[in-house]
Structure formats: C-alpha cells, structure tokens
Amino acid sequence: MSIKTRSTFSLVISGIITATVLLGAFAFGAGYYLFNEKVIDLSPLEQYNPGKPSIVLDDEGHEWARFALDKRDPVPFERIPKCLINAVLAAEDHEFFNHAGISVRGIARSLVVNMLHGRKAQGASTITQQLVKLLFFDGRKTFERKVKEQFYALLVERQCTKEQILEIYLNHVYFGAGIYGVEAAAQRFWGVSVSDLSIDQAAMLAGIIRSPGRYCPLVAPINAQRRRNLILRLMRDYHFISVSEYDAAYAKPLILRDNTVQNAEIAPHLKEALRIDLEELFGRKKLYSGGLVIQTTINRQIQQTAQQVFNEHIQRLKQSAHPYIDGALLTMDVQTGEIKALIGGASFAFSKFNRALQAKRQLGSIIKPIIFAAAVKQGRNFGEVAIDEPLEITMPNGRVWKPNNASGSFEGEMTLARALATSNNSVAIKTLLDVGCNNVQLLAEKFNITGLKPYPSLALGCVDVTLNTATAAFNVFANHGEYVKPYYISWVKDRWGKKIYKNQSHRQRILPAAVSDQVAKVLGLATDRLRKRLGERGLSCDVIGKTGTNNEFRTNFYIGSTPALTTGIYIGCDDNSPMGKNMFARKTAFPIFFALHKQLPCPIKHFSFDPALREQLIDEKTGEYLEDPATATACSILLPRAA
User: Fold this and answer.
1) What is the distance, to the nearest Å, from the Cα of residue 510 to the centroid of all Cα atoms in its chain?
2) pTM of the entire structure?
3) CB proximity list for 99: less than 8 A, separation 6 or greater
4) Coil, helix or strand for 500?
5) Fewer CB within 10 Å: N-end or C-end of the chain?
6) In what order do the strands lie in the sheet with 325-333?
7) What is the pLDDT of residues 9-59, one digit of tens each?
8) Which domains are assigned to the chain?
9) What residues does 560 pair with on adjacent strands?
C-alpha cells in the first residue's frame, strides 16, 4: 500500500469515527430534547413584516429609486404545483419525505468527503435545517450553531407535517433582488402566479435557492439558465419528470417578463451597481427593510437626457452598422468626481451587464495625451517639430514591427501639436521612445491605468480598461493635473438619521498644472478639428477631447470635457468582434457626446489656464510663430512664459 493510499485510508477511517461520535452525540441530545417535550414557537412564521424600504436620492435630494422587499404573498401548499415541489426536492433535499429533519446518511457522507478534501467540500443541510437556519439563526457558521440547528430541525418535524414545512419554507426563501417567497418570485420573473409555473420555470426557481447572488436571472441570466438545466437533469434522474418532459423544458430559452416599468427606470444599471455595493456594506436585510437613506451624486436631468440620446444613437448604429453594437456612457463632475450620469448598456431588461463599470476594452489612442504629457514634463513643447515617417522597430521577441497611421500615409514634418490633434501613430511612438517607455508606464499608473508593458506598442494603448477608469484618467487634463476618483454614493444614513457611511474623496496631483494645461489646449484643437469635419455646431462652451479606435474596429472610445463635466463613451460588441469597416470613434462615440452636451447647461464657458503659460499662434506643420490666425495651418498652443 502506497503512502498516498494509506493516508487516504486513514482519513476515511478518521471520518467514519468522527461521524459515528457526532451522530451518537446528536442522538443523545435529540433524545434528551424530545423526552422533555421542548416546543418551538412557530407563530411568527405566519407573520410578514416587510420593514421600511431604503430610499435613494438624486443630487437635489429627490427620490429616484428605492430598495424594498417585494410584497410577500404567502400561498397555501395546495396552490404550489407539484413540478415546483419536485424541483426543490431535486435541488435541495430529494430524501425530504424519508427523514426526520436531519439526514444521518448525508451527515456521514459530508464528514467523510470533507475529511478527504481537507476543507468544507460538501454540506448536509436538509430543507428542514435550511428553514430553521432561515428563521432562528444568523449567518455565522459555528459548530455550536450547527448542532442547535439539527436539534431544532428534529423539533420542527415533530410539530409540523412535511407539507407544512415545505409551505413555510417556500413562502420565506430568498430569490435575490429583494424577492422573498415563490409567489413574489413567479410574479417578478414571469408575471404569473406560482400555481401556473411550467417545469422549466420551476427548475429555475429551485436553482436560485442555493445562491441567489449567483443564480438570480435578473442579475446573472447565463448562470441562471445553466443552473436551471442542471436541476432539470436532476429531476429527470430522480424520475420526477420524464425524458420527454426534460427535453422539452431543456430546450426552452430563458425568457423573463417584459417589465416596461423597469425599462423606464432612471439609471437601472447604476441602481444595480448601488444594490451590489450596499448589500456588501450593510447586508440584504438592512438594505431592503432597514429604512436607509442613500444620497447619490446622480443628476436626474443629465441622466434622463443621456439615456434618451444614447439609446437613439445605439439603435441607429445597430441598424446601419452591426446588430450587436452596444456601449456605455459615464458623465462625471470635473472637480469633484461625482458621477452625474451612468449608462451600462442600451437595455437593462436585455442585459444587466454594466459596460461602464465592468467591461474592459482596449484603451487605444486615449493613451496618447499621457505620452505627450510625459514629454512636456521633460521640457518638450507642442511647437517642436517631428518627422512623420515609416518606422521599423525590433521588438524584444526579435520580430520587426512596422506600425502605420490610421490614414495609411505619412506627412513628413509636423509639430507635436498636430501629431496629438490628428492622433498620429508614428510621432506618438517616436515621442514615447524619446521619453522612455518606463517613464510613460510609471506616469500612466498614476492615472490608475495599469497593465501596460514598457514596449513601443504602448503608444497604441494596448491595455484593457473600463470606461470608468478611462474617463477618470482623461479628466486629469480638464482638472489642471489633479486626479479625482469617480463615485456615486455621497453618504448613507440609517432610519434614525445617523450618518453611517460617507464617501472619502480621493484626490491626487498627477501633473503640474502648467503641463496638464498645455496638453488640454491641444486636446481642444483635436475636438475643434472633429467638429469642423463633421459639421457639428451648437455647443456654446469649450470642449477638449480624444477619440480612441483599436485595430479591426472592435472598440471605440470618445472622452471629452467641458469646463464642468467630463463624459466618456464606449461603443463596441459584447463579444469584442469587429463592428465593421471604418467604424471610427468619430462616427460612433463622438456624435453621442456632442448631442448630449448640446442639451446640457454650460455654467462655465471657458477653460482657464495656468498663469505661468502664454498663448502662442504657430504653424502646426513647421512650428513657425504666426500673427495671422486666418492662416490655413495656424493653431494656438500654450508655452511657458520663460520660453
């Protein structure tokens, strides 16, 4: 016998001995409790107290959402369909009608398996134990609680019939998103009464019970469908349904109720992000029935305008370019980081995936302002001339890289101002190499952009980031070199008005204002070029901005700032497939930005610049100082006054 085999054999024997001792202890304890006729008061189970909902406020103090328990409508056992009973038994406790509250076989099997794995690999809770835990104990996992839970389970079985236990259990079990009880779940997911559930719907409900956060179809539809299919297989294997019933139910797609009220909600993706954060901070019970007041940074006017504009443009892109195009939008206050609008996708009912906070996409040319900022920090200025020409760069792996410009051509002489304004690749790569890849990488990390490799390809933004991260990084140039972390929760008060959470604003100076403002001035030139090229008019305040389009047109970014607000827009397909030929950000993301900000007030019309800088008119190709702004190639840059 090998050492490994002997070790395994010893663990099994140890597990069996342990199981025997524990089962003996349970038997002794249970006999003592039952002999003394201990009785549990189950009357509170018939009462329903939804508590006080939590209220979500916008930045003007008006309610725009709330978190509350769905109305729990208890149903008698006779109204619960057999398919749901069987689905729950298959998922949670298929021996329910054959044990007295605890499963001796299950406890022994669990102990042995856990011994072999050296950790908690398998549980042994019956439905009765789950009901006891739900009603009489908190979530702490201790040996003492487990023992008490099993004693209580035995007592509940003495006082109630199996049908009564199932009725109470199914009327109290949690299904995620504030939904308790099978009737509330059936109404919320499909708009039907529990008595009208089909086999596939019953299997989905049963599958959620094990982990509502992971399997609730409102939050994780893909996980929910996979879990449903597993429960269907178990129902077939336990002979609760026939093979033909299994095949028919398995083939059904996941279809939830078309909740038009939900579709009309303000910021549904942000509300879901709030729910996740607040559940983590305070727990489900406190969030849904604790009467919290949550002050958010959301601005109702900006959010509603953004939703209308965004959805109109996405629908146009779906029809004209690619049917699976989607995207995200995030608008933040330049100085404070307060998120004023957030859109995680065109349809929350279709997809709960938050593309503003969760989707990571290639940054592309949004990295270029950081490269030129590093150059200015080292003493360069935007009036300097570089040569736009073909490059051949030997990479660390020995391969020769021949980067190209988006236009497919090279211009020769141009200033750094023109290079950034036109998003020229060749000059950006040269500038990167002059400044040093490591220096740019370190500077980018201060902008919270991590994962960049110190290679020449860094100049093309070969790193995946969220829209939230990209927007906060760009905002540095609108905020005179200061980084502010975006946030959407200002504070939370409990039901008695005591503040129990307050956002801790994160501010950090990344660049000297004189450096940041020089870059911002050129980013204004970049946006002016776009506006003239596309004929966009009607915006009465200054705008700085940058497009980003990656190879094969998989991802588009446009991030722009007025003096008051920074808005980032991402456009792409969820599977990161190409959107089509010549799908540049100037055609997809930039028009959304412009259409939105034309409708928003501009309390501050112009950017201010560091007094250590002076404005200079130059020829954008040669760098020559000019006096006539009407010159075709004239542009205005900022230079240090000493220069």
Assistant:
1) 26
2) 0.74
3) 126
4) strand
5) N
6) 339-343, 325-333, 565-573, 555-561, 544-549
7) 454 455 555 555 455 545 545 444 444 445 566 555 555 556 788 999 999
8) 3-38+69-257 (1.10.3810.10), 306-486+511-601 (3.40.710.10)
9) 545, 567
